[in-house]
């Protein structure tokens, strides 16, 4: 009788995002976003599959699953809460956030294949996961919108005032987004990214005294601010998080803070594009590498 060696079954840990029946439309939207093969990118969370569960006698409660790659370092907000960034970590992580957003917004893949631009519309630290100490991936596309040229102004108008109030751009808070210009939707993401970059800088060891993690505007609004509170602060008072002079004493940090300021400009059209932010951080990473080479030569 022949004998066979059985190969052990290998299991892979995955992340499962579970939607209830009332969240079905959000599940459908996120599944549709992930169904675009051209979305795949190293700084976008890796999507594996979508499944419908339940609805049987044994499990009557209907559930909708999105199954994605699992990253054991958690999300960026939690990471910043418990970890102070080095200058190199800041440049690498922030650059990866910008690259992920630039890929979303782009109408081509890195190899030139046409793709439909996508806007996230709820960019914040809890919707960004850590792959490692130098790379992030954007996640949670439940509110994302495909900027399909076949859609009309009315289609975009019906998409609603969405996002997390704390991270909403002035024009969203005011309900005055230019629906006839698709770039307007990208500019909203850029404002939100600026607040995320500010959070990262606030937890970097080169700014001087590093305080405990706080979300943007934490000293001026409550933990879960409403749209009206944010409208008063951001629109009426033109409020933005503070950038102390001590933050810009470090070589290179001036460029980071200038980038943040340009990205949260009150005028949407004055904001940088995600691709421009990528170029800024590429410049900084080259600068860091050059400094390291000079240090090694001196040693």
From TrEMBL:
EC number: 2.7.11.30
Bilayer topology annotation: Single-pass type I membrane protein
Record CDD domains: STKc_TGFbR2_like
InterPro entries: Kinase-like_dom_sf, Prot_kinase_dom, Ser/Thr_kinase_AS, TGFB_receptor
UniProt keyword annotation of Transit peptide present: no
This protein's record includes keyword Magnesium: yes
Biological process according to GO: cellular response to growth factor stimulus; heart development
Gene Ontology terms, MF aspect: ATP binding; metal ion binding; transmembrane receptor protein serine/threonine kinase activity
Domain Protein kinase, first and last residues per copy: 1-285
One Pfam family this sequence matches: Pkinase
Family named by the database record: Belongs to the protein kinase superfamily. TKL Ser/Thr protein kinase family. TGFB receptor subfamily.
Protein's name according to its UniProt entry: Serine/threonine-protein kinase receptor
Species the sequence originates in: Sinocyclocheilus grahami (Dianchi golden-line fish)
Gene: LOC107596078
């Amino acid at each position: 009788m022949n004998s066979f060696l059985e190969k052990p079954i290998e299991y892979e840990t995955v992340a499962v995002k579970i939607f209830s029946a009332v969240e079905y439309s959000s599940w459908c939207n996120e599944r549709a976003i992930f169904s675009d093969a051209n979305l795949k990118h190293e700084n976008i969370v890796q999507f594996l599959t979508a499944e419908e569960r339940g609805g049987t006698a044994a499990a009557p409660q209907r559930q909708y699953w999105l199954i994605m790659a699992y990253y054991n370092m958690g999300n960026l907000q939690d990471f910043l809460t418990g970890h102070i960034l080095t200058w190199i970590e800041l440049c690498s992580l922030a650059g990866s956030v910008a690259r992920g957003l630039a890929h979303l917004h782009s109408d081509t893949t890195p190899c030139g294949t046409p793709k439909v631009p996508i806007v996230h519309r709820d960019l914040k630290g809890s919707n960004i996961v850590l792959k490692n100490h130098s790379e992030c991936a954007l996640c949670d596309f439940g509110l994302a919108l495909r900027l399909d040229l076949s859609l009309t102004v009315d289609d975009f108008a019906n998409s609603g005032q969405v996002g997390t109030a704390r991270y909403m751009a002035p024009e969203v808070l005011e309900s005055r987004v230019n629906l006839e210009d698709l770039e307007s939707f990208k500019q909203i993401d850029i404002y939100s990214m600026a607040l995320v970059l500010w959070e990262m800088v606030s937890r970097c060891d080169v700014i001087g005294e590093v305080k405990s993690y706080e979300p943007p505007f934490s000293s001026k609004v409550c933990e879960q601010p409403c749209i009206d509170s944010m409208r008063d602060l951001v629109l009426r008072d033109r409020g933005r998080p503070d950038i102390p002079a001590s933050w810009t004493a470090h070589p290179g940090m001036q460029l980071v803070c200038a980038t943040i300021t340009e990205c949260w400009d009150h005028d949407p059209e004055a904001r940088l594009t995600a691709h421009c932010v990528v170029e800024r951080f590429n410049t900084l990473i080259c600068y860091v590498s050059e400094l390291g080479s000079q240090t090694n030569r001196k040693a």
